[in-house]
Input
Amino acid sequence: MGMWHTTVERGTAKQEIRHCVEIRHESFAVPEFIELLRRHRICSVVADTVEWPLLMDVTTDFVYCRLHGSEQLYASDYGDAALDLWADRVAAWAGGDDAPSGRFACGERCRKIPARDIYVYFDNDMKVRAPFDAKNLRERVQRRLDLQTTL
Output
């Protein structure tokens, strides 16, 4: 059994470090790679870009999502439809589920858990869109999470 986290000592306190891999080649979009990440509890980064595979496979108890711009790398903004799609995915992940849409490399879906930590990073900052897209996504996700708690 492999190590799935690293512990770093800072004074007398210990902190867990979570590991992620952002794939940038189609050869990683196979079930064996996803299963390897799950076995070692390493996050497969969900990276939205025109140049690299976009996979929705959840491999750990958290999701790290990098939104680079889906039309032009580091420059595209995210319109209403795209932000709604990402909000649906983020809300599902936060609730411990798989994304409701997208490409999966592995036929076996993630293990359902009560909740997941979700980290979304907008890297589409060439045209200064990232802060606005992040704010809009946060508002959309919050509305979805509020709806889930009232149902």
Summary: The two ends are 41 Å apart (CA to CA).
